[in-house]
Design goal:
Length: 296
């Protein structure tokens, strides 16, 4: 009686393996040669300063082109001239005052924004009612640029320090909420089911599974919050500021001091760079349990 199943034709080992060996040789030989060339090229390239190698190379090129006269001073002063401008302002006491004022503003605004963003993000991530309460409003606010909010805050709160601090907190709170909410909702469902199957209570589930699982997303939100707080600081210090890095830039623009304008921009950039390095250190400390950080 026929079963309807036709057994496959059996080939000899030589007939089966020989074509595969030839196909393997044909496929891997060029890749091996290309791979060896790429490996030699990578070994020749050196990155002595890591991610800062390219910025330092740009600074060196900038300095050389300025010394040769290829880059006019009115367009971009030499890096050494910018450093000298900073030294001069520091000696007369202006740079220290402006820097302290800006750091105080961004510190207060960042603290307020992170507190609101973390609190609402956790509530919305854990509770469906919290999502309905906060998510729609935050998604709408997220599409509004900081500079568009500035006139409204001036109407509401005037042009004093409160407006500047609230603008910075606005820029810091929204990205923290969005990333933390997405991180909590994105925790692997299998981990939650395993914890429930093991009889873990709700409080322990939140503290041992949900929040640790959302930690990478929290750090991403922190990186964005720090960056947007600096952007908020830039926007805030353009309005009736009598101290701060933005005030320094506006005053330098009035007197056509391009070197001082660049100095203010460099300070903003350094603040953002230090904030990013702070988050990188937190990642190495808090995410050691992840496989990608074990080798670091």
């Amino acid at each position: 009686m026929s079963t309807g199943f036709a057994p496959a034709r059996v080939r000899s080992p030589r007939a089966v393996s020989a074509p595969r060996e030839r196909a393997t040789e044909t496929f891997t030989a060029p890749a091996g040669r290309d791979g060896s060339r790429l490996t030699r090229l990578r070994r020749r390239v050196r990155w002595p300063l890591g991610i800062y190698t390219t910025p330092v190379a740009i600074l060196v090129l900038w300095q050389v082109t300025s010394e040769l006269g290829w880059l006019p001073e009115k367009i971009a002063p030499a890096p050494t001239a910018i450093v000298q401008a900073g030294i001069d302002l520091w000696k007369i006491g202006e740079l220290g005052t402006d820097l302290t004022t800006s750091l105080r503003r961004v510190g207060i605004g960042l603290a307020i924004g992170l507190t609101i963003g973390i609190t609402t993000g956790i509530i919305a991530g854990l509770l469906r009612s919290g999502e309905y309460l906060f998510n729609g409003v935050v998604q709408i606010v997220h599409t509004i640029p900081l500079l568009a909010v500035l006139p409204l805050m001036i109407v509401w709160f005037g042009i004093d320090e409160l407006t500047k601090v609230l603008l910075i907190s606005f820029g810091a709170g929204v990205p923290m909420y969005l990333n933390l909410f997405a991180a909590i909702r994105g925790v692997d469902q299998r981990l939650i089911e395993m914890a429930r199957a093991a009889g873990v209570g709700r409080a322990r589930l939140i503290s041992r599974v949900l929040l640790p699982g959302a930690l990478p997303g929290f750090l991403v939100g922190l990186r964005f919050s720090l960056a947007y707080s600096v952007l908020g600081l830039v926007a805030a210090e353009t309005v009736n500021a009598n101290a701060g890095i933005g005030y320094l830039i506006n005053r330098a623009q009035t007197y056509l001091r391009t070197d001082q304008v660049f100095l203010g921009l460099v300070i903003y950039a350094v603040i953002g760079l230090l904030a990013d390095q702070f988050v990188r250190i937190l990642e190495r400390v808090l995410l050691q349990w992840r496989p990608s950080y074990e080798a670091q």
